[in-house]
Hints:
The structure holds two protein chains of two kinds.
Chain A: H1 5-22, H2 28-52, E1 61-69, E2 74-80, H3 84-101, H4 109-128, H5 132-141, H6 143-153, H7 158-187, H8 192-198, H9 209-223, H10 232-239, H11 242-252, H12 254-267, H13 269-274, H14 276-294, H15 300-321, H16 324-355, H17 366-369, H18 371-384, H19 391-404, H20 412-420, H21 422-438, H22 454-472, H23 475-485
Antiparallel strand pairs in A: 1-2
Helix pairs in contact in A: 1-2, 1-4, 2-3, 2-4, 3-4, 3-11, 3-16, 4-5, 4-6, 4-11, 5-7, 6-7, 7-9, 7-10, 8-12, 9-12, 10-11, 10-15, 11-16, 12-15, 14-15, 14-20, 14-21, 15-16, 15-19, 15-21, 16-18, 16-19, 16-22, 16-23, 18-21, 18-22, 19-22
Chain B: H1 3-24, H2 34-59, E1 64-66, E2 70-75, E3 78-82, E4 85-87, H3 88-111, H4 124-143, H5 147-165, H6 172-203, H7 208-217, H8 222-239, H9 248-251, H10 257-266, H11 271-278, H12 280-284, H13 287-308, H14 314-336, H15 338-365, H16 378-381, H17 383-397, H18 403-418, H19 420-445, H20 474-489, H21 498-502, H22 512-522, H23 525-545, H24 551-557, H25 559-566, H26 571-619, H27 626-647
Antiparallel strand pairs in B: 1-4, 2-3
Helix pairs in contact in B: 1-2, 1-4, 2-3, 2-4, 3-4, 3-10, 3-15, 3-20, 4-5, 5-6, 6-8, 8-11, 8-13, 10-15, 11-15, 13-14, 13-19, 14-15, 14-18, 14-19, 15-17, 15-18, 15-20, 17-19, 17-20, 18-19, 18-23, 19-23
Amino acid sequence: MDFNILSAIIFLPMLGAALVAFIPGLTRNWIRGISFTLTLASFALAITVFVLFDREATGIQFEEMVAWIPTINANYHVGVDGLSMPLMVLTAFLGFMVVLISWKEETRVREYFAWLLLLEASILGVFCSLDLLLFFIFWEIEVIPMYFLIAVWGAGRKEYSSIKYVLYTLFGSAFMLVGILTVYFTTGSLNMIELAQNGVSAYASAIPATAMFFLLIIGFAVKLPVFPLHTWLPDAHTDAPTAGSVMLAGSLIKMGGYGMIRICVAFFPDIAREFSVLFVTLAVIGIIYGAAVTLRQTDMKRMIAYSSVSHMGMVLLGIFAFSEVSMSGAVLQMVSHGLLTGLLFAMAGFTMHSAHERDLRKLGGLARQMPVATVVFSIAGLGSLGLPMTSGFVAEFVTFTGSFSSGAFNGIQVFVIVAAISVVLAAGYCLWMLQRIFYGPPQEQFNHAHDADTMEKVYMFAFVILIILIGVYPAILTDIIKMGIAPLV
Amino acid sequence: MPDILYWLIFLLPVISFGIISVLLKPFVSNESKLPGYLTILCIAGSFVLSCMALNEVMNAPHHEIEVHQIEWLLIGNFNFSVSMIMDSLTAVMLLAVTFVSLMVQIYSLGYLHKDPVNTIDTGFPRYYAWMSLFTASMLGLVIAGNLLQMFIFWEMVGVCSYLLIGFWFHKPSAANAAKKAFIVTRLGDFGFLAAILLIFSKTGTFDTVYLREMAIAGTLAGTTLTWAAIGIFSGAMGKSAQFPLHVWLPDAMEGPTPVSALIHSATMVSAGVFLVARMYPLFEHSTQALQTVAIIGGFTAIFAASMGLVMNDIKRVLAYSTISQLGFMMLGLAAGGVAVGIFHLFTHAFFKSLLFLGAGSVSHASGGTFDMRKMGGLRKYMPWTYSTFLIGSLALAGIWPLSGFWSKDEILAKALENQPIIFVLAIITVFMTAFYMFRAIFMTFGGEFRGGESGEHDSHDSHGHSAHPHESPALMVVPMILLAILAIIAGFWNVTGDFGAFMGHGEAEGTFMGNLVGIFTHSALPLISLVIALAGIFLAYAMYSAKWLSPEKVGNSMKALYTLLSNKYYFDKLYEDIIVRKFLLGWVFAGLQKVDTNVVDGAVNGVASSTASTGNVTRKWETGQLQLYGLFIGIGILAIIICLFIFG
Lengths: 489, 648
C-alpha cells in the first residue's frame, strides 16, 4: 500500500502538536481547530484500519518498515495485529475525545494542546511499534507531556504527583532499557516479531533469560500498575487535569498490559508460565486490595483512580492465566476499562467544574441540577461494576471464565473465586459514589451547577454508545483480539 | 409459530424502552402519558404472544418447542450463543409475568397521575422506560436457554430493581434502600457467578439443556454438582430474599407501590425460585443441595412471617409475607419438585400483586400514608378496593376454594411426606399468615377512619390529597378486579392435576367438580390446614375487630419477643452497623488503607527521602579541595589493590 496509514495515524497528532506549538500568533480558536481536525483525522484513519482489518488472519497487518540505523539493525517498523489494533483505535478515540473534553480550557492553551497531542502520538507509537528501540523511544517520550500536564494544569499536590510519576516511570524504564539491551546483545535483533517467533530463551547468553524477563517486566508492572508498585497512580490520576486523567487511565496504563503480552509473554513464554503463580497472586491482591482501599476514598477522582488498580489487576490475572480466553479477556478488559474509566474521569471532571466540589461527603442531590450528566455518570458507574450489556461485564466475565478453566497451575480456581469477590466490592463503591453525588435532596449551593451542553453531550454519548455496543455485541472486538492472542497460547 | 414471534415476547418491551428513552424522553414533558400508552401497548403485545406460546407449548410433543440459537461470542472453547428454551416452565412464567406487568402498567397510569415528584424532573417517561426495561429483562431471564444468558438478565433485573426502588432518588431512605437491595443481592450473585465458572470449567458449556441432561446422566455429579447447585441457590437466595439475605426486601418498599407489586412480589423476587426450578435436575441429584433448599425455604417461611405479625406499615406486612411465601415456594420445590413450587409461584403472583395494588389504593385514599394505625374504616369508602383486597387475603391465607388454597395445600402435603420437621414450621406459618393478613384487613378497612396523613410533607407517595377517603379511579380499580378474578380461579388449573401433568409431574385424574370438593375426602391435611388458617383469621378478628383481646396487652405480655420482632431480629443492625461499618469499613478496609499510605507508599517516599538525605551528606564531600579528592582517589586505589590481593 502506498499510503502509510499507521504512520499517518501516529504523526498527524504529532504534526498538530508541532503546528500548535510553533506557529506564532495563533488564536485560541485556531489552536482548538487544529487540534480538533488532526485528532479527528487520526481517529478517522484508525477507524479505517479497524474496518479494513482482515479479521480472519493472524499476524501483522498494515506493516511498514524502513531502515533507520542499519549499524545496529534498528528499523522504523510499525504494524498492528489483533492485540495492538484495538488499543490503537482506543487511543485514537480518546485522543480525539480529550480535545472535546478540553474545549473550555483557558490556561496556557497553546502549550496545553501541544502536550496533549504529543501525548496521544507517543502512546499511538507505542502500540504500533514493532522495533524495540522505536518502542522504547515512544515509551519514554510519553513521560514528558504527562509531566507537564500534571505539573502545570493539575490540582492539589500537583508538583509532588508529577515528579512522583516521572521518577516512578523512569525507575521502571531504566530496568526495561537494560532488559532491551540484554535482549539485543543476546539475539542481535530488535525486531519484535522475529523475537516473538524465535523466543529469546533459545539463544545462548551470559545473562539468564529469567533475569531479562524480570528486567523487562518491572517497567510494565509499574505502568499497569501491579501491586505494590501502584502508589504513583492515585496521586497522578487525582491531581492531573481531566484530559490528563482520561488519557492516563484510559490509554496510557494499557501500555503496561500491552508490553507484558507483546514482549514478556511473547519473548519468554516458558519463563512467564513458570512465574504464573507469582503474578496471579499479585493480581488477586491488587484486585481485592484495590477495591477495599477504593471503598475508603472520599475524593471523587481518587476513588476512580483506586478502582483502576483493582480493574488492572484483572488484566494481570487474565494475562498470567495463559489461556486464549483469559488473555482475550485481559485485552478486552483493557479496552473496556479505557472507555469506562475514561468516561468516569471525564464525568468526574465535568461534575467538579460544574459544581465546584469534588469531596464526596459534601456533594449530593445533583441529579436534579444535571440530569443528563447523571444518566451518563450512572452508565459509566454501572459499567464499572460489571453490569451486563456494558463492556465491563463481558470483559470481566471472559477473564474470570478463561482464568478459572485455564489450568495454568493447580488451584488457580481458588484465586479466581477470591478475585470474583470484587464484583460485590465494586458494587459497593460504584453505587456509593453515585448515591453521594446525585441522590438525596437537591442542595441549594449547587443551584449554579449547569448540565451538559451540546459539545459535552457529544463526547458523553460517544463513550456511552461504544460501551453499550461492546457490551451487547462483544464479538466486534473479540473476533479481532483472539486472532492476536492465538499465536501466543 | 415462527421463531421471531417467540423472540418478540422479549423484544417488544425492549423496543418500548428504546423508544421512550431515546426518542420520547428528550421531547415529551414529564406529565405526558404517551410513554405509558406505548409501554402498555408493547406489553399487551407480549401478553398476547405469551398466550399463543402457551397454547403452542401445550400442543407440542414433550411440551417443548425448539427455537434456533444464534452464535454470539466465540473465543477458543468459550462459546456463547443466544438461545431460548420454550417449555412448560417458560410458558407459565411468561404468562404470569406479562399479565401482572400489564395490569401494573395500567394501574400506574392512575397511580402516578399526581406524583408529587413530577415537578423535579421525574415522571412518566423515566418510570415507564424503566418498567419496560424491567419487563424485558424479566422476560429475557425466563426464556434464556443458557446459564450465561440467564446471569446477564438476572443482573439486568437487579439493576432495574435498583433504579425503581430509588425512583424517588431525592429521598435518602429510597437511595439507601436501592443501594442495599443491589449489594445484598450481589452477594448472592457472587455465588451464582462462582457456580457458573465451576460448571463451565467442568463441562465446557453454559447450555441449560445439556447441563440438565448431564446431571440426569450422572456425568456431572459428586462434590462439583453439590457446589454448583449451592452456588446457584445462593444467587436464588439473594434475589428471592431468603434468610440470611432477606434484609433488602422490606426496605425495597421505598419504591413506588406499583413497582413493589410487580417487582418485589410477583416477578423479580420469584426469579430465584424460577432459577432453582430451571436447574432442578442439578438439585435433584444432590441430596445436600436439595436439603439446603428445603431447610432455608422452610425456615425463611416462618422467620419472615413472624416479623410480619408486628409491622404497622401495610407494605411491610406484605413484604414480609412475600419473603415468607417465597420460602414456601422453595420448600415446595425441594419437597415436591418443579410443579409444586412453580404452581405456588404462579398463583402467588396474582394475589400478591393484587394485595400490593390494594395497598397503593388505600394509601391513595388516606393521603399517602402506609401506616395502618392511621387508616381504618375504609370499607365503606372503598368497596371495590376492600372486596378485591379481601379476595387477595383469603387466597393468601389459603382459604378454599381460592387459588392459594390449592397451591399451598400441595406444598404442605409434600412437606409432610418428605420433610416432616419442616412441615411443622410450615403449618405454623399458615396460621401466622392468616393472622397478619386479617390483622391488616381489620386495621385498614374495619372500625372508624383514623384520619390518614394530614399533611403531605415527606410522606411516601403523597398525592397531595388531604385525607378524604374515596375510591380510586377506574384505571386503578379495573386491574385490581382482573387480578382478583385470577386470584380466585388460577388455582383451578391444578384441581385435577392438569398443571402438574403439564409440568411433567404425574397425570391428570378425576373430574373438576369431583376434585373440587373431593380434596377433603382423600386425607385430613387440607381440612386441618383450612381450620388452622381460619383460626388465624379468628384470632385477628378477636384482637383487631371485636377487641376481645387488646393488642397492646398481648404485646406487653411478650415484651421481649415483641421488641425482637419489631426490630427484625436485629439483622439490619448486625449487617449494617457491626459487619459493614465497624468490621469491614472501620477495621479491615481502613487497615488496608493505612497500609497503602504508610507502608506501600511510605516505602516509596522513604526511598525518595533517604536518597535526598544521602545526597545531602555526600554533597558536603564535594568541597572543591583537590587535596581531599586526592585522598579519596588514594583510598580507592588502596581498596582495589587489597581486593586484588585477597580475591585475585
